[in-house]
Design goal:
Helices cover 29% and strands 16% of the residues. Strands 7-8-9-6-5-4-3-2-1-10-11-12 form a 12-stranded mixed beta sheet. The protein has 10 helices and 12 strands. The structure holds S-adenosylmethionine. Residues 37, 44, 79-80, 82, 112-114, 136, 176, 178, 205, 207-208, 210-211, 340-341, 345 line the site of S-adenosylmethionine.
Length: 345
Amino acid sequence: MAVASPIAPAAEDTTRRLIDSHGRVIHDLRVSVTDRCNYKCVYCRTGELGAQYPELAIADYLKLIKLFVGLGIEKVRITGGEPLLRNGLIELIEELANLRTLNGNPLDLALTTNGHLLDKLAAPLKAAGLQRVTVSMDAVDAPTFERITRVPGSFHKVLAGIRAARDAGLTPLKINCVLLRGFNDGEIEGFARFAREEDVVVRFIEFMPLEEGRLWTPEIVVPLKEIVERIGRVMPLVPMPAREASETARRYTFPDGVGEIGIIAPVSQAFCGACSRVRLTSDGKIRTCLFSQVEHDLYGRMRAGENDTALSDYIVKTIYGKEARHHIGEPEFLKPSRSMVHIGG
Ligand code: SAM
């Protein structure tokens, strides 16, 4: 009778991978390291300093992220609030840059920022091991930009941040612009020129009902089709092929290949079927969808002393229950209890 060798490697335990009940493999984790923000963008915040959620120690984010990486996460994006406000960020990036995925590769490590503090931090972040940044910028016209952020002088700070990031090699550099009809939809054509002149990827994002106030209506959303038509009237757009199935942006370039435009259309052309993403909030809760009605207190379990195996099992089980899709625009849609700044965009 054959006896199993005691040194034979254990068969791979595929039950401890992040797969949801709809068959989607989850390999992308967004981690909010603070829900504080130095901007009060009119479409995101009410302007009042609302309740803030607790922040974890940097070492605790690291412990939790390591558990996710041990279960197959390959991409980690640090976000907030405004992540550059967070003490200990550089140390966190250094530690994350040393982690390896289950395939032995470095993590795909990125960060989303409003760019206000990036002029000073781009080079240290790159040296710490950060690969890419996405900068949020909702207008290329300075007065319009500052009407949105409600912070005087912010446009030139962000522009300096974008240029510092490019010089530091935090590339490809993506600029995210949330379009709202009547607020900044006059910026579409200017952004197309900006993409070409600054050699950045500009991505327009449809506005989702995740604001602190009550601004969202279907009419305020500028849909993908309209953006493509409007840019096309000034400069023809050439579609680019998707790089992976879970890519959220439809990508376009121009006939001379200079400049890239992406359009992320979660409202008019939802991509939930290809979603590969989950979130960890600044207070250590798992959110399996931006629009989840429930949160899963991973940090609470860690603080209560659960060991890594129990915590990993909890992550696997939680992600198995990921929602099939969002219900924006449908009668049964319920706005989540947290807004984007408190979830981590
Ligand atoms: N402070 C960082 C920043 O500005 O990028 C990270 C957090 S911010 C919440 C992340 C992104 O979410 C930003 O690009 C912001 O424009 C976007 N965002 C905020 N509210 C949104 C909404 N209701 N719909 C779509 N995007 C939104």
